[in-house]
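User: I'm curious whether this sequence folds into something compact or stays loose and floppy. Could you predict its structure so I can see for myself?
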Amino acid sequence: MGETDGDSENFLRNLGFPRIQVHHPFNHFDFARPGRRILVIGPMGSGKTEFSARMWRDSLVALRKGGAARAATCTEGADRREIFVVRSSLDQARFPDYPPDALAYRGGYERCGDRIGQARDSFALEALLASNPGVGTWIVDEAAFYDERIAYLMKDEAERRGLVFVCPTLVLNFRREIFNHTARILLETATDVFPLTAYCEHPDCLADSLYTYRYYLVDGLECPALYFDPLIIIGGDRTKEDGREPNYCTRCDEHHYLPGKEYTYFSLKPMGEAAARGDLRPLLAELNAVAGGTPGSRLEASLRARHLDCERPCPEQLAALKVPCIAERALVYLYAEQNLLSAEQLRSIVSSLGLDRDYLTRRLSDNRRPLDL
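Assistant: Here's the prediction. I'll summarize afterward.
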């Protein structure tokens, strides 16, 4: 939080506070201001959904008021004290032990009754808006999971009817890059941004963290995700011991391990581009080595050179090589994200190397490029 303005500081000084650093207060939500598109951003575990739950509790208090208070919060028949929570249907595996109408967060939940629903895309959100014309404030959880159209839909509805949209969402992915095109447009069209941080979850660190860290547990060992790990992996919000399924926490810059970025651009993507031109041999040979068929992959050589045989060794980065299905992950990156492989090439590689079809099918579906293998 930034420092307060002079009025707040003078008020506290008049109460007898010494000259100390005064931070911005945690305000109740302002339901009087129309037309806002508010992004609540931060890593997993930073309290984005808890921010929404606090808004819900504020609305219950505000709704008890009438007269001038009601007039200040209504535009075009929509009352901004009335909140509807929209959850992404891609994220329904989170918090499976809570009631279906719960706005759940780490440490608790709020029951929203009939004011909570699911949407898969912007068209489903548009249908919810049409069927709830009296609702003035919309909490759209994980808005970056939706298509780009959602940013402009919210902007148009905010400007036309004074609706307020609050989007607790990731804008950075585990690669520390803008999550996707939707996240970028949400940033461009937002009127307010509330950045949240968390403690770095490395056991030896108390630094502030802005980054989401993805890792896998293999025989109890923390193994960082490679840079080309599938961008979207849908799953529950609990620790997983299966090396095929990721875990997440927040990490500071020092402890956010991300091996394989240089390899991706020096080797993997150029081999995918060669495949797109019709030469599949370099990629096939590398994936065969990565999958364990032959020794000495370019991936292993790159990680050793950059993280072990160097001035400041970081052996934790090499644990990424212990994660299963690395060749499959590379294929998802090249096919679903980079569009460098055809479906026929993908099927040919999977068949030639005997790769894990079940893993590939699930990850391709997660990334909205389903394919029958």
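Summary: DSSP finds twelve helices and 14 strands in the chain. The longest helix spans residues 261-276.
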